[in-house]
Amino acid sequence: MTARTVYTNASTDPDRSEVTSFTIDIPQAALHDLNARLDLTRWPDGLPGTPWTKGVPVDYLRELTTYWRDGYSWRAEESRLNEFPQFVTDIDGQRIHFLHVRSAEPLATPLLLLHGWPGSFAEFLDVIDPLIDPVAHGGDPANAFHLVIPSLPGFGLSGPLVGTGWNSKRMAAAFAALMARLGYSRYGAQGGDFGAFVAPDLGRVDPDHVIGVHVNAATVGFIPWGDVPEEELDTFTEVEKARLARMQSFLAEGNGYFQIQATRPQTLAFALTDSPVGQLAWIVEKFKEWTDSRHALPEQAIDRDRILTDVMLYWLTGTAGSAANLYYESMHSQDWPTPSTVPTGVAVFAQDVAIRRYAEQGQQIVHWTDFETGGHFAAMETPELLVRDVVEFFSGLPDRDR
Q1: For the whole model, what pTM was predicted?
Q2: From CA 283, how far away is CA 226, in angstroms rounded?
Q3: E-assigned strand segments in 92-141
Q4: What does the alpha-carbon distance between residue 100 and residue 297 come to, in Å, rounded to a whole number?
Q5: 3-class DSSP state for residue 187?
Q6: Are the C-beta atoms of residues 338 and 363 closer than 8 Å to each other?
Q7: Residue 165 burial (C-beta neighbours within 10 Å; 0-12, 13-18, 19+)
Q8: DSSP per position, 53-66
Q9: What is the average pLDDT across 210-218?
Q10: Dihedral of CA 288/294/299/302: which sign?
Q11: What is the pLDDT of residues 157-194, one digit of tens each?
Q12: Cα distances (angstroms) measured from residue 186 to each of 5, 119, 181, 197, 371
């Protein structure tokens, strides 16, 4: 094993349709290498100005790095991740890693949970038990789910990326194949960020089997395309105006990472694969900017150990570049969303930008919830609200045949 080899129990069987049990077991050498790199970090000078306006403050990142080096325990987090049944399989030539957590309720609804960037399968840990065992949380057994939680192709334990063309629709097709391989003929999908691209695309590529799609942190397909005419803007509610302003602020000041990942993911990969502090800064900035703005620091919204575990899943697998490649593939495929007739539910948290009138132009919106709190990483930041909304959406669907 090399420092980057993280997979155990991986199948070498030539039958590529096999689903193989999987355990995370990071070589100790990889953790020693991380600590050595952290110790040798070459720190930049802090730029003058208001903290966070030019990026992650140096003093903040120094303190967080010290905690990563001396306070955070990967082994404890690894053990927690391994509490859930994990598997790998090969679909369309690509390795796919996923959790498969079945409910004890025999009529539970199969549900895919799909992360985005800079997320990972680990962001869903706090929603697993309430979804598979609603009775233990004061809920109705009829609202139980069997959960399939994959790492997106090229992300983390589904890396390295094999071949080109892995945009949202191709990922959706791969996950449709995964659900069929697991024996699910009817299922739902939930996703945030890029998961909110892939989940609706599942409804487009597999409409005969997808009973409903639920999204949060939704953008393309749920927002205006281009400038909003003045006469249309005059009809906006105050909530819609606030979301449009938030989106315009993002386009002006917050989408530099998007442009880099959508145009030069390979160049970015050299820095993020070589420097753990660089990888940390690249991700933790988004946890600061995309969580509820009332928090001064990202760990006030999401536990810092959970943030670091997310960073570790990129660092230990060396998949910063292959994850960023999703932006490149999506922007260069020109495969934009087409209208969908699959019932769709939308949870809009306080930092989100989805606007219903635009979502209804391409989706069959049957459920919409506006929240006054929370942000982009709902499964980690406000898991109880996300669970409640997912349950309300799927319990309200007329067609829930198993």
Answers
A1: 0.94
A2: 28
A3: 94-101, 109-114
A4: 33
A5: strand
A6: no
A7: exposed
A8: TTBS-HHHHHHHHH
A9: 98
A10: negative
A11: 999 999 999 999 999 999 999 999 999 999 999 999 99
A12: 36, 26, 12, 20, 29
Strand partners, 100: 148
User: Which pLDDT band holds residue 399 (cuts at 50, 70, 90)?
Assistant: low
**The residue to which tokens 């003929």 are assigned:** 185
Q: For position 402, what pLDDT does the model report?
A: 45
Give one DSSP letter per residue of 202-269, joined into a string: HHHH-TTTEEEEEEES--TTSS-SSPPPHHHHTT--HHHHHHHHHHHHIIIII-HHHHHHHH-HHHHH
pLDDT at 5 over 70: no
Query: Distance (Å, rounded) from C-alpha 268 to C-alpha 198?
Result: 24
Beta bridge partners of 88: 20, 97
The phi, psi pair for 96, rounded to 5°, reads -125, 125
Q: Give the span between the Cα atoms of 301 and 293, in whole angstroms.
A: 9
Measured distance CA(352)–CA(355) in Å, rounded: 9
3-state helix, strand, coil in the chain (%, to 5): 45, 15, 40
Distance, first Cα to last Cα, the chain? 42
Per-residue pLDDT of 9-57, as tens digits, reads 443 443 447 999 999 999 999 999 999 999 999 999 999 999 999 999 9
DSSP 323: H
